[in-house]
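Continuing the series of single-chain predictions for the mutant panel. This is the parent chain; the variants come on the following pages.
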Amino acid sequence: MRADRLVQLLMLLQSRGGWTAATLAERLEVSERTIYRDLDALSAAGIPVTATRGPGGGVALLDGFRTELTGLTRAEVHAIATVGESRALADLQLQLPLRSALAKLGFALPPAQQQVIDYARQRLHVDPAPFFAAPEAVPCLETLREAVWQNRRIRLVYVDFEGERSRRIVDPLGLVVKADRWYLVAGTIRGPSVFRGVRIERATILDETARRPRDFDLPSFWKEWGSRFAEKRASYEARLRLNEAGAAALRSIRPQAEHRKITAGICAVDFERESIALSQICLASEAGGVEVLEPPALRERLRAIAATLTTCYR
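Parent structure:
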């Protein structure tokens, strides 16, 4: 509903200034034209909305203006009731503060809406933790968090996917958790880059202020980077001959989105890397009916593994 969107827009403008119409449109999932109409509606209602052109400008509320909004929609109350305590909050020692904040929010609501929250919590529970995925320890997370909060440069010792170790000084821009995996977004000489948290062996906070791009927005950067990452991820395609049992075994290992590509007969599967292909094909081969046709190097690696196992368990 438009009224709900206008309230969301007002809350965004009240949180900070310098919003662009494009960013507001992305946040509220509408067109820029709609944002301009909504801004006109706020102005007509007496809300002092200002717009400044050029670098550092954007849409904002007049300095000093604040508004107090009370009452939530039924859907918003249901959404509050589903907020769970993810492992990420525990990692950042924010689990107890979240409980406290939700309790304060609940007490501030009218009695009728407090009852709606209790009702919803007994009918919908969100548990973000997977059953079998082991938590990924990030030994330097506390140091990274402090560097981000204090806006201080850090010296990293980083190990990439291939095991190459490097040392570098970066400007921390933010921390992102995706599916219980932590990532550091940091400025480098090549621009903002992403570092997997578990691969940071050592992090040292320096006595230097981090340089933060003036127009940097963490959610927008992460969304764009994630799209590029999905498009440019590593590729390692193997042609396989599968029977029904082999295809079913491989489907049980591969992501759900790829299941339709894995069928009995001859098919091509992109494993991203040879090491992933080796491990997953070995697991699927336990059911029988999995043969690698190409590339030849992968066949040779599997032949060598088979020979070693045969010698060991003869």
